Amino acid sequence: MCPVAEMTSVSSLLAGFPQENPGCVDTAVRGGLFGASISVCSGREGTPRKAGLPPALLEQRENLRYTRAIMISLVAFLGNYGREYERTRHNVAWQFADSLPFADTLNWQRKFKGLYAAADDLGPERVYFLKPETYMNLSGESVGELARFFKITPERILLVHDELELPPGTVSLKWSGGLGGHNGLRSAKAVLGTADFWRFRFGIGRPDHADVAGYVLSEFTADERIILSQIFPQSAAMLAQALKAEPQKLLPEWNKKKLMA
User: Fold this and answer.
1) Please, where are the H alpha helices in the chain?
2) List 90, 161, 182, 209, catalytic entry
3) Which domains are seen in the chain, by residue range?
4) Mean pLDDT, residues 226-242 taken together
5) Which residues are annotated as a binding site?
6) Is the pLDDT of residue 135 over 80?
7) pLDDT in tens, 205-217
8) Residue 65: pLDDT band with limits 50, 70, 90
9) Taking a C-beta distance cutoff of 8 angstroms, is the pair 175, 251 a contact?
10) Beta-strand relationship, 157-163 and 170-175
11) Residues marked as binding for tRNA?
């Protein structure tokens, strides 16, 4: 979500450029996790209008959503609950969580439809970790319950998940954007009321065949497990950085970063 002052600034900028419906720079109120949020739109329908705007302004408008000093308060590891899913590609986030250097020091408790823990020594603020104990397509319910209870806004949430569109050995820090057909992200967006949250994606590659569901629900091969064992420590270091500093500062380095060939 954006501060009202920032959005007003964008409104004044938009007013200086030609639009299909001159003089129609409106604000639209939409529901979110904690109520209404403000977005700048142009046009009578209240829909975002990009036509006629210079690329530099478009980029500025998009980037405003994470220009504030934002610290991560919740890291949620998306996956399917159940022993039969533990070693599958869809549960790479849980496997990463278990590999973290501080994993054994966390006091996990069962609440918010999952397992959660808190840490006060990983950054300037308390950080919550969450493993939703739901199926992937309902994991947003767990994320939303914890976020509401501790009053954590979506922009302070980092979801860790598998990514079909990235090859194995590649990781990527991403802010907002599309959901890529990922059911866990869809669920989170539906519950939070926005896709404006952080994602840390582990590439699992797309299969050559059409059975994507069977692919993500199957276990990693021996070679893929070797890759994971080598990229998890580097990924843990990135996560540690993201918890200590503003995550947007890491975007240039960790956008589709290839850790292994």
Assistant:
1) 4-14, 55-63, 92-99, 139-150, 183-192, 212-216, 222-244, 251-254
2) 90
3) 67-258 (3.40.50.1470)
4) 94
5) 85, 135, 137, 183
6) yes
7) 999 887 999 999 9
8) low
9) yes
10) unpaired
11) 85, 135, 137, 183
